[in-house]
Hints:
Shape: elongated
EC number: 2.1.1.182
Family: Belongs to the class I-like SAM-binding methyltransferase superfamily. rRNA adenine N(6)-methyltransferase family.
Number of domains: 2
Organism: Archaeoglobus fulgidus
Radius of gyration: 20 Å
Helix content: 25-40%
Enzyme class: transferase
Distance between the termini: 51 Å
Domain Ribosomal RNA adenine methylase transferase N-terminal: 7-168
Amino acid sequence: MLINRRIAERIASYAELDENDVVLEVGCGTGNLTQELLRFCRVVGIEKDEKLVETLRKRFRREIEDERFSLIHGDALKLDFPFFTKFVSNIPYEISSPLIFKLVKHNFTLAVVMLQKEFAERLCNEDSRLGVISKAYCRAKILEIVGRENFRPIPKVDSAITMIIPQPQIEVKDRERFEKFVTFAFSMRRKKLSTIVRAFEKRFGISLELDDELANKRPEKIGARNFARIVDGIRAS
């Protein structure tokens, strides 16, 4: 849990909130970030831990009564997201990947999230499944690194405040097919693309048009735009 109030203040500031916003916060914890967000706008929180839910209900009793804070007890990965304009969260490390994939497929204007530093770097780069797929949906940027000493219990790694803007960085005709091929390719990341394409064709019964210049490269070396080119060249076999 984030214990440094100044960092919570900066996260809220990065989100550029106003009274018309509705923020979705996943993993509210004891409410330190929630408190900062409520200074600006309405907040909808999702918290899985029953004890923390009770803590939040007591801490924000007045805000709940005033309908400024809505608290949902449940698993954010299993629930349908309610309406929100911005997403601001200190995301639990263990659900970062599935939650980000879920988030980027929703309509929102801006997200500011605290992520594990290594995960944030993968999201922003193009040498991983996460980084490549995300480029079809959004642009991500690390705003600042946050030391592990700002959390309790103290984790083994540092974190990064990361901004996500729903601006696709590449054009993909079929996102479902794109995600399928990227996921398959990175499951064989030590293989060359020529081998990966043949295996993909054999398993799924489709053909890919692979440029000779990419044939001997590995998935982490070609970038999101080349993945899109390969997928858009797919034809039924």
